[in-house]
Amino acid sequence: MSAHTAGMATLSWSLPVLIWCLALATDLWVYVDAKARADQGDPVVVTIGAWRIDNPVTWFLCCLVLWILFLPLYLRSRQDKAPL
User: Is the whole-model pTM more than 0.70?
Assistant: First the structure.
C-alpha cells in the first residue's frame, strides 16, 4: 500500500469519527447550557405544534438523534432569550 493510499484510508475513517465527536461535544454543551438556564429559572423552550421541548434532557436527546435539525433550533431558541 502506498503512502498516499494509506493516508486516504486514514482519512476515510477519521473524518466520520471527527464529525461524530463534534456532534457529541455540541450535544453535551446543549445539555449543560440548557440545564444552567433551567436552574436559573429561564429554560430554553420551543413549541412545534403540540410538541414542547423545555428541559435539558429532551434537548440533549433531540440533538443527539437529529443534530442537524435541533442544534440550530436550540441556538435560535436560545437567541430569543436574554443572555445569562
Answer: yes
